[in-house]
Amino acid sequence: MYCQNIEENKQINNQISIVDKQQQFTQNQQVQSPFLMNQKQDSQYPSSASDYKLISGLGSGYFGIVWKVQVLTGPHKGEFVAVKKIDMDKQTDSKMDEIRKKMLLLNVLNHPSLLPYKIAFVTGKELWVVFSIMDGGSMELLLKNMYTQGIKDINLLATIIKETLLGIEYLHQNNQIHRDIKSANILLDSEGKIALSDFGLTTKLKKNKKHNTAVGSVCWMAPEVLDDNIFYDTKADIWSLGITAYELAYGKPPHSECPTIKAVLNILNEDPPRLNKEDGWEDSFQEFIEACLQKEPAHRKTATELLQMKFFKLAKNKEYIKEKIIKKLDPLDKRIDPQVKTMAEQELKTSKSVSQNKIQWDFTESTENPDYMGDLDTQEGDSKINKKMQQFNAHRNDLASKQNGEKPNQKKCSENYDEFQLGEEEK
């Protein structure tokens, strides 16, 4: 959908003023997703930045640092949660459009193998998105700190991969492609629960259509995603899962030692990776890897078909994960990437107080059905909260003009907002 500039959007939306918007959205009420409405024990989280205390950085994601935060008020006072802060002033119009669609998606995700979302609110120039804290950390951290040569416990591998695959199956059944499956996005909590996270690149698979935008982290990307001339669908996630399984088994993905361009060429031109038979892996695990890592997408099994494979008979429960992993872990703060710690410390020192005139951004209007995944990338889906997004953009630009003493640029955003995303080492 082509986006007009801000002044044109104001006219389309019947000249709704910023004052009207502030009156409507600065009430001290929380924004609850349909997911949370079905889980009352997760309700009533604060909707103001002043009601949270930033503790430390946990990691970095598609839109910035993910924080460990303590709730200061309300029924969840004292609880630790994770917060993703997004600085709106640093986002282009196309990124703002992308963020809006991702928030719509978070509103309707409802599966135990996907990271639970609590609340989202805008305070000052920042969007805060609050999640359950997964204090076991990511599988990537686990590989760096505990299993540097990979996880050799086949039951543990089967358990982690199965829980991840259940989340992928749910997304695929609802025509969503994750597009960034890797160990860094598989999280673990203190009770041994596994959850797939980071939906920054997740997109709707439109009816009878495929995608051809190359996004993701290079070493995990399927050949068809890297090839500009080939369209892809949910089978791209299956390839990424196979690479992630290989990564969990050996501690790193194939081609991780190569420069980006070399890695791309290897993925496109070489045979798919396979487990080393001399390492004595279970036949069922090798069969699973082969089922995922087929060059031709049509030859890969679906998520549902994969779950029926013999390999997953080896899977255990979260108590097994707790016994084998959680009890052996150092505190999360000691396992965080030093670079993330430094970034977080610098941000804490340089951050300025934000306005307490909260601009409440309501993401719950997409549907009343918590399981509805909807046409979030269509004009119909956009119209649900398009008016509020345009109001927020107008407010953002109004603030910029006041601060700079000049009229802000009124940019237009294109329909194709996806850009090629390199792996973490290239960002």
From TrEMBL:
Q: Which residues bind ATP?
A: 85
What ranges does the record list as Polar residues composition bias? 351-369
Which Gene Ontology BP terms does the record give?
protein export from nucleus
What Gene Ontology cellular-component terms does the record carry?
Answer: serine/threonine protein kinase complex
Ranges of biased composition (kind: Acidic residues):
416-427
One GO MF annotation is: protein kinase activity
Q: Which PROSITE patterns match?
A: PROTEIN_KINASE_ATP, PROTEIN_KINASE_DOM
- Tell me which UniProt keywords the record has, alphabetically: ATP-binding, Kinase, Nucleotide-binding, Transferase
Q: Check the record and name the SUPFAM superfamilies matching this protein.
A: Protein kinase-like (PK-like)
Q: Write down the InterPro entries for this protein, in alphabetical order.
A: Kinase-like_dom_sf, Prot_kinase_dom, Protein_kinase_ATP_BS, STRAD_A/B-like
Basic and acidic residues compositional bias: what residue ranges? Answer: 395-415
Pfam hit, one: Pkinase
Cite the Protein kinase domain residue spans from the record: 52-312
Region feature Disordered, mapped onto this chain: 347-427
Family according to the record:
Belongs to the protein kinase superfamily. STE Ser/Thr protein kinase family. STE20 subfamily.
Write down what this protein is called.
Plant dual-specificity MAP kinase kinase family domain protein
* Source organism: Tetrahymena thermophila (strain SB210)
